Fold:
Amino acid sequence: MFDRILIANRGEIALRVIRTARELGMETVAIYSDFDRDALHTRMAHIAVPLGGNLPSESYLVVDKILAAAKETGAQAIHPGYGFLSENAGFARAVEAAGLAWIGPPPEAIEVMGDKIESRRAMQAAGVPVVPGIVDPIDDAEAAVVIAQEIGYPIAIKAAAGGGGKGIRVVREPSEMESAFRQASGEAISSFGDGRLYMERFLDRGRHIEVQVMFDGHGKGVHYGERECSIQRRHQKLLEECPSVVVDDELRARMGEVAIQAGQAVGYRGAGTVEFLYMDGEFFFLEMNTRLQVEHPITEMVTGVDLVHEQLRVAAGEKLGYDQSAIEMRGHSIEVRINAEDVPAGFLPSTGTVHNLRLPGGPWVRIDSCLYRGLVVGLNYDPMLAKVVVWGPDRGVAIARMKRALEELNVGGVRTSAPAAMAVLEEPRFIEGDFDTKFLESLDLSQARGGLSILAAAAAALHRRNEAQRQALAPDASSRRGWTQRHRSSLTDHIRRSQ
Amino acid sequence: MKYYVNVNGTEHEVVLTERLGVLTVEVDGEVLDTDYHEVDQLGQAHLLCGDKSYAVSVEGDDTRVAVTIAGHVYDIEIEDERERAAHAAAREAAKHGGLIKAVMPGVVVELLVSPGETVAEGQPLLILEAMKMQNEIKATSPAVVEKLHVEAGQAVASGAPLVTLSAIE
Structure:
């Protein structure tokens, strides 16, 4: 195994990797932008290398700076986390060319799976079921209207280089095509530098279910079951659970087998996630994420496997050392993403300084977080601040435990997505397991749902009264400045007079 | 002291009376037996109501407060009697304007209309990119574009004016 690894990322995922590495007695190298001087990942690593700059394009996306940091610190391997350069085949190649181990899949596999058009072709060839649609890039909105007639509405326009819900638009009738095409291609160019779009049938009432896989470099692959990720908004997930209420043992075995088949078709190695769209007993390949996922902890909670540990082992050339029969799923796990978003305002980005912080604890509650008092939340980086993950012996206990944990949580200074997750957990349809990817968007989240308005009103008035008293007692800042100013000028006058 | 406290769109009257060091809290005419105690100066507070205990979080300034109780956030606007009168006048004045403001910080990607143009309700006026997502900013009613306050490529702060619309004669 490695003695020292560099983590080419920030935030909670950098900390996640540092934690496992520390437990294995491995040294960790953090990289950080000027903005992240005080960040937890910077502080928790054994070695921290400044990259300078504030924007990702000046720091976490600069391949040369990262490789120089690895060389300078003697790191033997690079873990890319998720986002940033994690699915960049060019970076993976540069890491390997520099003589370092890449804790991720082979660059060729990233390339095929990263291109929606290429991956559809490869999966069709490997016998993996895909969503009806066309695999060739479309020229313009007029051509799209013609092709749409053949596939049938509603249609999803997607960026060939896409991911993370960017560059996707749904079109329900021909008149919407032009505006949707323009927006999707604009987003595709600004996010991925590649405006190519393709189209497929938009399966309206589907569920998003994904399978976690892991392959060693010796031709062996296993799956760790599925994750239910249908609670999402504009393709941004809010709450995930493992297992899914619609997946039984037989379906899990079938989906798992197809997922392994998908990975094997591209010569996969390391951790990956095969995303499926599930509808009425059928499932279709959507895409493969060639990295560790944000929501990987729920799989860890249910299987007892440390996925980062497994990533490190196979990247170091070790064999998996077990087969599918060794993987057992116990109980139920739920994750809620705490994003800096203003839910009543329609999930708009929220910025500020986190000054008021109370994190939950207690049995079977796991917090993967980059939060600390004083954290400045800006617009330069991903808005995800923390993940609250719980485990319970069954789904009912897990739901109750998550509600309890969210009741304990306060993140002040920015608005967060936590109240939206709370609303989901209280919704009868969610509790019954009857939902699809449209569920979250169908909820009215414009107002708080708690029934304690009277108490809230009293607390607000008492808070204001206390604030007013504090201001009356303390000499306020402006008068202090005024006094200093007067004092200084009288002093200068005095000096001038005495000269 | 009397406060008008708007919680998620519903107004409550809160009267705080201090007599001989005893603070009485009255909400909508009913006296609440409360003991409000700030745990730190950062937002954590404890509210006892009778013998019921609530670990609350309260943050904000004089006029806008967010209270979190058991995982739910209550958005609150608070006014005393003087502020209430001033705000009522300002609201009346604002009714006749048609200024569309940025509701989030972002970058203007493209302008889709020009001054003098007549737009329908829901027609996209411009595209604003925030967090790498492109959002269409739409006309809220049928109108004529009076003035564009931004250019393509311009970064705007939250609350910055984007477009002024005027009513169709």
Q: What stands out?
A: Chain B has a mean pLDDT of 87. Residues 6 and 64 of chain B are 10 Å apart (CA to CA). Chain B touches chain A through 59 residues (CB under 8 Å). Chain B has one helix and 17 strands.
